[in-house]
Amino acid sequence: DGGITQSPKYLFRKEGQNVTLSCEQNLNHDAMYWYRQDPGQGLRLIYYSQIVNDFQKGDIAEGYSVSREKKESFPLTVTSAQKNPTAFYLCASSRASGAQETQYFGPGTRLLVL
Amino acid sequence: GQSLEQPSEVTAVEGAIVQINCTYQTSGFYGLSWYQQHDGGAPTFLSYNALDGLEETGRFSSFLSRSDSYGYLLLQELQMKDSASYFCAVSYYNQGGKLIFGQGTELSVKP
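Output (structure tokens, whole complex):
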């Protein structure tokens, strides 16, 4: 079955630590996205990638970094510069990067600060 | 600026019809989408309006009026499983499929 997976489901971060969230898709989609969701809030775009080896900042990129070395993978690193990282992180992909393309979401990773 | 407004909560009974409104203060967007998210889960796509008018998909319909800066999601024959959060989102041409989401409407369906 084709789909998009995220791991781990829960992640705990210590102060000053960098952590990496995994996102993999086998849908052969060109575009991938990372969103952050806080309780009772909508999704805010962190980074997106329209094609391999290319990515752009979203609305809240500070304190985060990404890479897109392979079409199927788009890992997100939450750096120590992100002072309020506790949130639900959602990865998504779409066939292409057009405005009319449906985005398919992974199950999410909950990040908690110890 | 870009912002979308939705009611934070809506309650309805099984079998009823409910309308979730989305008003926006943005321009130049390409289309309006609706996503459903069950508690703690992944959002799933429901509907997309590129043009003004009504789009129907089974029990769900979505409407867009650019002249009124307004859209809505209409859910008919409500079922308990429809209890979830519903998000409207706008997408922009030539911005890599970037979506701007509203803050979501939590729908509670009662027996």
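Chain B is about 0% helix and 55% strand.
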